[in-house]
Specification:
mainly alpha; two-stranded antiparallel sheet; about 60% helix; Arc Repressor Mutant, subunit A; single chain; 9 helices
């Protein structure tokens, strides 16, 4: 596990922030299993362990192990024939994760100017870690920045101009960090 240090409002380091990753209800694997089941049901009308394994390009055994845990946590249910379905909580998590991924990807592409491939990969990496509150606020921000509001348009123009000119200058506040990312 990577130690993530945060800084609180007083500027003091918070060394236990990394522990919040362990308390996250949704892991990357959980999110993708739930979204895959939802996709399969939408596309085929059903989902089986084999279908989930094939779609995620993992073994049946690996899929089965994860799906048993999801069933134990009441995120999925199996019928008498072994077909998988999402519980209301599982469906909510799948839909919320998908929505956060779309928002993150759009933010990375449209606002930050990240290329499509990296935006898709990065949004996939963090979609399940974003809290509902952060997702809500991100939705508001992306909606605002994509609106016709003059302030939004001015911000986007100013920000993109800054990225192309100001941040390249030596006096940029985060010049050292910028050099790391450029490597």
């Amino acid at each position: 596990m990577t130690l993530v240090l945060g800084i609180n409002q007083n500027g003091a380091m918070m060394t236990n922030v990394w522990k919040s990753f362990d308390s996250n209800e949704v892991t990357h694997s959980t999110a993708h299993h739930l979204m895959t089941i939802e996709n399969l049901i939408e596309e085929l009308g059903y989902a089986r362990v084999t279908d989930v394994a094939n779609r995620l390009n993992i073994t049946r055994g690996s899929a089965s192990t994860t799906l048993k845990a999801l069933e134990k946590n009441a995120l999925i249910a199996r019928d008498v024939n072994g077909f998988l379905g999402l519980t209301s909580r599982g469906r909510f998590i799948a839909q919320a994760t998908r929505a956060k991924k779309r928002l993150l990807q759009q933010f990375l592409q449209d606002v930050l100017g990240v290329n499509d491939k990296d935006a898709e990969i990065d949004s996939c990496k963090i979609e399940h870690l974003v809290s509902m509150e952060s997702g809500h606020q991100l939705c508001a921000l992306v909606s605002f920045l994509n609106s016709d509001h003059p302030t939004a348009k001015e911000f986007m123009e100013t920000f993109h101009d800054f990225c192309s000119k100001e941040c390249q200058r030596e006096e940029c506040q985060f010049r050292e960090e910028e050099r790391l990312f450029a490597a």
